[in-house]
Amino acid sequence: MTCPFPLFRLLFWIISVFFQTIKSFLIPNISLPPPHFPPKNTSPVIPDVPVLSPHFPLLLVPYVPLRRIIDFMDPDALVSLSFCSQKTHSVIKTQRKAPFIGRLCVSEFDSNFSFCTFGNNNCVLSVRDCSFFSSSERSNYVKMNGQDVPVHVHPLDGYLVSRWYNTTDGLKEITDYVTDLFNIDVSKVCVSKDAINMIEWVNSRQKTPLKSVTVCGVTSSEEELIYILRDCKTSSQIEICSYAPPHFCFSENLRRIDFLEIWHGQWVTIDNLLTMDGIDIILGYSYLSNSDLNVFLRHWLSGGCPRLKLFSAKIGFVNIFQVLAGLLHNAVLVEDSRYYTSPSGYSRTLSDGYDIQRADGVTATVCKQGNENVVIAVWPETTQNYN
Questions:
Q1: What is the pTM assigned to this prediction?
Q2: How far apart are CA 193 and CA 170, in angstroms?
Q3: Which of 25, 35, 151, 178 is 20 to 30 A from 84 via CA?
Q4: How far apart (Å, rounded) are the C-alpha atoms in residues 216 and 1?
Q5: SS3 content of the chain, % helix, strand, coil (to 5)
Q6: How do residues 25-63 score in pLDDT, each as one tens digit?
Q7: Rounded to an integer, what distance in angstroms lies between the CA atom of residue 23 and that of residue 167?
Q8: Per-residue model confidence as pLDDT tens digits over 104-149
Q9: How far apart, in whole angstroms, are the C-alpha atoms of residue 258 and residue 209?
């Protein structure tokens, strides 16, 4: 094992430059010395916890400006900095007060790559399979939850990549580390294997239930799909990106889900549609017919799916007049284009649609987009994101 200092030299220098930049308006009376590195002839020693130079400016800054500096720093930089010493870990854990914009996401897309992210997929700390690296490659080590973990800096994005023989165990370790450091819960999980166990593990370790679950991979098992649709403890968002097994059939009522997106919806039937209670319902390619969508639209007009704001389905070929069969007397053609945003942030341009009104006065626009997509957008639109 080699010394961890090469990894942290660059980190110390970047942070010091950042301090110098904001010094003029945050801490004008404090002199921040240049970054200090150990002598090059220092013998390589692996301490239990990597230590900072005593001249590193972060530990000399008074607490009031220190809090502001830490609050300005990105989560990935704070995670990297937290490994430098027990003191920097403690300072970040106790002094960071700024609320997080976005949500902590635990992802596991395949057996070789897993990561934690905040907000718009900005990686904070990732996991890679050890087999991806040659034994001759230089490694730096950090102390994580009591064990030495080899790490390197991502060459393009700058966050830390940890290496594990078992990526699932690694994902759990970095989840524990990051959530403890920032005192937050996981709100989103992306899984591609062992989905049930991973979701149950996350839910069992925190007080607040998951808000969002995404299932990736090629094909999910029947057991996993039934669990996601019926038993998974999250009501906000479910996204199923994987294929269902051949002849999969879900014959039970779907539970209440605010946002439901199914990329490969060949298994979705009209009976499934009639039991959905969602705000946004997005279906990828399905075997639904124009007549099925007509039945669903009548269901909504009679008070079914009362929370619906946006429904979108891809079918073989859309005939808008079959979708509106028997309802044209209550429909008004709107030739102008209108821009619509759903509560989850989905945006649609509605062109050449038909406005149709429910008995309680609520209006929806029904239109086709291309030859395969039908959209039902309920007014008034709302841009409030419920996640």
A1: 0.79
A2: 15
A3: 25
A4: 36
A5: 30, 25, 45
A6: 333 333 333 333 333 344 444 444 444 444 456 677 887
A7: 41
A8: 788 876 444 556 666 656 788 888 888 766 655 556 889 888 888 9
A9: 14
